[in-house]
């Protein structure tokens, strides 16, 4: 480092987390005041333009009769809230009822998030207790699962659970505990299809959660738990009063990300249930099937807007709490 | 990939035809296609053509494009092969873009969607040049294309697409197994006789794990439709006001569905929750696990492998699919493609010229060489009697005896996109009653078949 | 339970878990090396005959090289764009106090919720005519490969900001201050002290952006219209046709497709998760 005199430090406002007192207001501090806004401006512009415009278009199409004809001929037919009315109260016969889809999506999300977070946490705690080699092996295999592209994962799990040639049916039958599973069709009913999808999602999501929490556990200062131990605290008490509070903000963040990911999950569900899609239709698949396959873009847009609003209302209070807990550190 | 490959012969004929200034009738079997009025070549710089995988061999595609380019100096053909996976979304965005492809192969089940939306050019005026004759009505004598393909190309009385080629399913069987089980293939003339033969084959081959005398997967809904038509049923019908509704729950339709279930229960080891592609039935056939199966013409070549139980084409035979009524064959589903010209194409006339090549005798023979039933009735009925054409002749005969098609309704593509018939079949095989499952499927069909 | 028994049991559970994570991957590679009559069997074959046929078939698919080139191009610039833009925001969030800070964090969280499958048609409508006015010269629009970069950039930016914010927050601010007390400028302090410490975080976050753009199929297939413009996921599905699925070639392609991702993962190993942990753990 070769500092020159004219670059001599003016620590105020620079790296410290406070704004400089006004008597230091020089051109440089005005620049300092503007700095954060300059720094976030590319993101804000990106969101406003690249995400904002399509969202506005989505909102606009949700209030139009908008199908293939309108798309190809640039026709605009406003229908007000018709599409929303249809989505909420008038699902065409034969399509799953919207409320059913919302409930199914929510249940699916809760099951997946619960499994991912619980198993992820358990594995993180387990990692702490393992000997070096087993830890290395487990970490390595988790990275393998994590690194696999989703498209590949879907194809692979279809192959594993293939009713005729899949290794899973063969393995289950070979153990003999559950009887003969040869020819068992996993993708015939909604529940078993969801089982396979959940296995795939959880299989790929655990590594991120487990390794994140493990990293979090490692960064808890050792002195804290040692001091507690000296004071006669049990392992359980240490976990409850030291470990858990320390990783709580991290867990909140992981739960937040998982909730969003699992609520919106599309590829896994869509690709896995091509042969019996009705029973496994979640919100994002519903919007896609109606929008792209059925070419009812207006109706699909309305369904998507409703989905986003649901997520927003459900999560904004949570996000506020999460942001506050992150900020209060 | 296809079993029948004498494309090179057709190719040579094609080159001859393309190079002579008038349409040469030399390659035509009998009669001639509508003569093409000689016109000044349309101008263009690039003509974009989208075809699907398996339609043409590379050599045939190149021949078509070269002959077009020769006739249209300065115009280059940009030939693109697209994947079936996600094709509707792809065609949709492509057609809505500023620079759509000029010519697109469209599956005949999807065609109506794009015709109804006004995505394709009205080419009624060019009908004669394209080889289709003088009338848009299938039954008229002046209409020269296969009826089913013509119906897929006409919407509201106007021509929006050009019939391309068709294919249908046949009964593929193991000649050697029939022989060792003492079954005469010519006796397979009804449903009952087919089932009896299947059981005989099963007994004779009981040592083979998972052997099916007659292999049928749970979700071959094309095969099921044929059985429904065979019993006099329909998939959906249109009322006087033009509104479509599902008719799978009608008594005769349910009889056809029951036929399918009977066939499956006669000992098929196919998956209840999947179709003929997963696992690929021709692979199972190759491994010796199949006595008979319903398959497309192109599957025959794939059943013969370097390894496996079927290593010679002599082991594989082809029969028409029998009806429930003795002595008849089932009406077949005529799958295939039509060609659309984008409404926004700036090269309309050049596009018509490219497509018109296919209605020439050489073009028709090119399609026969690819193993497809050609679009013109006259050519389909007069396929040369060569060993390579055995399957194609049976296919064409089946098609002539009777064919059916998916309902020509605006929302049919949407029905297929989320196919309730497949789900229905799986439900029945897993214990739901035919009536209950058919009613549920009709409800789902009704929801989308009329479009938005 | 004695201490040793407990330890053995825990390690046993660890190995069992490792088996579950590894098995599907093993099965993919195993299938990729099997010849046709080996994987269409009812009793699975656990040791393949190590044929390279499937790989040959996968690599000989027409335009494979174009797909690779496009995938690398799109992924590289997506990562670059997301990192640069995301980094600026992350620095501001982790190091500077400003009005609207929490609001901005909320915006990032909300952006994370956007349903991208549903935005297919709206995004198409937005870009089909290319960019407006003075930006019209940019190669953005239907069937223009760089369009995918912008789309994936938007997909990945919110997470990039979250993750990088954590990494930056994990670096003690005192270090920079100490450097500045020693006479370094703010820029120097950042460049010489913070950036090197942040490098693993940048690499780790880039993996996320990379995987997203490397994997994406829907937009790549729908927005591009020519063979020469497709990316590798389109290649991956090309073995599933109406002729049936060529499992061998699909698994071989999948194996090859996963390799680069795995390679990057191994380079950075545990560092990927450090960011969220560093920024999110109360010490």
Description:
The complex is a heterotrimer of chains A (329), B (452) and C (283). Chain A is an all-alpha fold and 329 residues long. Chain A is built from 13 helices and no strands. Chain A starts with 26 loop residues before the first helix and ends with a helix. Chain B has 452 residues and is an alpha/beta fold. Chain B folds into 2 domains: 7-167 and 334-404, Periplasmic binding protein-like II (D-Maltodextrin-Binding Protein, domain 2, 3-Layer(aba) Sandwich), CATH 3.40.190.10; 169-332 and 408-448, 3-Layer(aba) Sandwich (D-Maltodextrin-Binding Protein, domain 2). Chain B has helices spanning 7-19, 58-71, 87-96, 111-116, 147-153, 175-180, 191-204, 221-230, 251-265, 281-286, 297-303, 348-356, 361-369, 377-381, 390-401, 412-417, 420-429, 434-448; strands at 46-51, 76-81, 103-107, 154-155, 158-159, 161-167, 169-174, 212-215, 236-238, 244-246, 290-296, 316-319, 332-333, 335-341, 373-374, 403-404. Chain B has a 6-stranded mixed sheet with strand order 2-1-3-14-6-15, with helices on both faces. In chain B, helix 1 runs parallel beside helix 2 (58-71) and helix 17 (420-429) packs antiparallel against helix 18. Chain B is globular. Chain C has 283 residues and is mostly helical. Chain C has 2 domains: 1-51, no CATH class; 52-280, MetI-like (MetI-like fold, Orthogonal Bundle), CATH 1.10.3720.10. Chain C contains 13 helices and 2 strands; from the N terminus they run H-H-H-H-H-H-H-H-H-H-H-E-E-H-H. A two-stranded antiparallel ribbon of chain C has the order 1-2. In chain C, a hairpin with a 2-residue loop joins strand 1 and strand 2. Chain C starts with a helix and ends with a helix. At the A-C interface, helix 1, helix 4, helix 5, helix 6 and helix 8 of A face helix 1, helix 4, helix 5, helix 6 and helix 7 of C.
């Amino acid at each position: 480092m070769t500092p020159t005199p004219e670059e001599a430090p003016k620590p105020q406002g620079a790296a410290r987390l406070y704004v400089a007192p006004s008597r230091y207001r020089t051109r440089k501090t005005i620049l300092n005041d503007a700095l954060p806004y300059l720094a976030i401006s590319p993101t804000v512009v990106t969101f406003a333009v690249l995400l904002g415009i399509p969202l506005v278009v989505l909102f606009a199409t949700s209030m139009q009769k908008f199908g293939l004809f309108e798309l190809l001929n640039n026709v605009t037919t406003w229908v007000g809230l018709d599409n929303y009315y249809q989505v909420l109260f008038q699902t065409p016969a034969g399509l799953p009822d919207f409320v059913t889809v919302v409930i199914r999506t929510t249940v699916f999300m809760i099951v997946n998030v619960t499994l991912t977070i619980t198993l992820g946490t358990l594995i993180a705690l387990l990692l702490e207790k393992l000997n070096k080699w087993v830890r290395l092996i487990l970490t390595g295999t988790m990275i393998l699962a994590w690194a696999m592209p989703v498209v590949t994962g879907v194809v692979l799990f279809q192959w594993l659970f293939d009713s005729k040639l899949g290794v899973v049916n063969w393995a289950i039958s070979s153990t003999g505990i559950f009887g003969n599973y040869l020819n068992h069709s996993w993708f015939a009913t909604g529940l078993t299809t969801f089982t396979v999808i959940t296995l795939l999602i959880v299989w790929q999501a655990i590594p991120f959660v487990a390794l994140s929490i493990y990293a979090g556990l490692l960064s808890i200062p050792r002195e804290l738990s040692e001091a507690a131990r000296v004071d006669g605290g049990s392992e359980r008490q240490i976990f409850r009063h030291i470990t858990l509070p320390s990783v709580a903000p991290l867990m909140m963040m992981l739960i937040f990300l998982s909730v969003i990911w699992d609520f919106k999950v599309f590829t896994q569900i869509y690709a896995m249930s091509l042969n019996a899609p009705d029973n496994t239709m979640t919100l994002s698949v519903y919007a896609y099937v109606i929008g792209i396959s059925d070419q009812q873009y207006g109706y699909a847009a309305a369904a998507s807007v409703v989905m986003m609003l649901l997520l927003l209302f459900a999560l904004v209070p949570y996000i506020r709490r999460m942001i506050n807990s992150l900020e209060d550190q | 990939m296809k079993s029948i490959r004498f494309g090179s012969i057709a190719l040579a004929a094609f080159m001859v035809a393309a190079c002579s200034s008038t349409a040469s009738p030399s390659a035509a079997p009998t009669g001639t296609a509508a003569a093409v009025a000689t016109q000044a070549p349309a101008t263009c710089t690039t003509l974009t053509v989208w075809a699907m995988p398996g339609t043409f061999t590379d050599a045939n595609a190149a021949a078509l494009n070269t002959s077009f380019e020769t006739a249209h100096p300065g115009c280059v053909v940009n030939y693109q092969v697209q994947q079936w996976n996600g094709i509707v979304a792809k065609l949709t965005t492509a057609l809505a873009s500023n620079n759509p492809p000029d010519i697109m192969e469209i599956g005949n089940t999807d065609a109506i969607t794009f015709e109804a939306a006004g995505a394709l050019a009205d080419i009624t005026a060019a009908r004669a040049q394209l080889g289709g004759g003088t009338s848009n009505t299938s039954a008229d004598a002046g209409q020269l294309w296969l009826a089913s393909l013509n119906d897929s190309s006409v919407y509201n009385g106007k021509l929006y697409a050009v019939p391309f080629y068709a294919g249908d399913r046949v009964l593929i069987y193991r000649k050697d197994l029939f022989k060792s089980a003492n079954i005469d293939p010519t006796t397979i003339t009804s449903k009952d006789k087919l089932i009896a033969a299947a059981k005989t084959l099963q007994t004779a081959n009981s040592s083979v794990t998972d052997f099916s005398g007659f292999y049928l997967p749970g979700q071959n809904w094309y095969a099921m439709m044929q059985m429904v038509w065979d019993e006099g049923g329909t998939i959906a019908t249109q009322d006087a006001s033009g509104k479509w509704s599902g008719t799978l729950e009608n008594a005769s339709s349910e009889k056809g569905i029951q036929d399918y279930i009977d066939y499956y229960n006669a000992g098929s080891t196919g998956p209840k929750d999947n179709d003929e592609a997963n696992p690929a039935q021709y692979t199972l056939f190759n491994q010796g696990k199949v006595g008979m199966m319903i398959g497309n013409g192109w599957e025959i070549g794939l059943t013969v492998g370097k390894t496996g139980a079927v290593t010679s084409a002599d082991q594989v035979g082809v029969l028409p699919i029998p009806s429930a009524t003795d002595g008849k064959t089932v009406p077949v589903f005529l799958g295939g493609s039509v060609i659309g010209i984008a409404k926004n194409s700036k090269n309309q006339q050049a596009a018509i010229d490219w497509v018109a090549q296919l209605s020439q005798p050489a073009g028709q023979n090119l399609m026969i060489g690819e193993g497809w039933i050609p679009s013109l009735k006259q050519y389909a009925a007069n396929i040369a009697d060569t060993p390579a054409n055995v399957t194609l002749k049976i296919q064409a005969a089946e098609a002539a005896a009777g064919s059916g098609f998916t309902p020509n309704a605006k929302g049919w593509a949407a029905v297929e996109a989320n196919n309730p018939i497949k789900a229905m079949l799986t439900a029945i095989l897993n214990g739901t009653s035919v009536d209950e499952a058919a009613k549920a499927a009709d409800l789902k069909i009704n929801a989308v078949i009329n479009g938005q | 339970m004695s201490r040793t028994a407990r330890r053995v049991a825990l390690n046993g559970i660890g190995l069992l878990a490792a088996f579950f994570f590894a098995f599907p991957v093993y099965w993919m590679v195993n299938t990729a090396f099997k010849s046709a009559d080996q994987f269409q069997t009812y009793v699975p074959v656990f040791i393949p005959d190590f044929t390279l046929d499937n790989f040959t078939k996968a690599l000989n698919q027409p335009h494979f090289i174009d797909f690779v080139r496009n995938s690398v191009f799109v992924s590289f610039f997506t990562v670059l764009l997301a990192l640069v833009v995301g980094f600026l925001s992350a620095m501001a969030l982790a190091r500077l106090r400003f009005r609207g800070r929490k609001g901005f964090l909320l915006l990032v969280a909300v952006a994370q919720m956007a349903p991208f499958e549903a935005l297919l048609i709206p995004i198409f409508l937005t870009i089909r005519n290319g960019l407006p006015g003075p930006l019209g010269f940019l190669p953005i629009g239907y069937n223009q490969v760089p369009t995918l970069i912008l789309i994936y950039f938007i997909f990945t930016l919110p997470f990039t900001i979250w993750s990088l914010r954590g990494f930056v927050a994990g670096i003690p601010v005192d270090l920079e201050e100490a450097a500045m007390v020693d006479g370094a400028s703010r820029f120097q302090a950042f460049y010489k002290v913070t950036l090197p410490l942040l490098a693993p975080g940048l690499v780790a976050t880039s993996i996320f952006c990379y995987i997203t753009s490397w994997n994406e199929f829907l937009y790549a297939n729908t927005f591009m219209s020519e063979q020469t413009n497709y990316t590798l996921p389109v290649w991956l599905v090309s073995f599933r046709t109406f002729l049936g699925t060529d499992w061998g070639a699909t698994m071989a392609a999948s194996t090859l497709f996963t390799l680069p991702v795995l390679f990057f993962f191994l380079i950075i190993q545990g560092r990927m998760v450090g960011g969220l942990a560093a920024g999110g753990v109360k010490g």
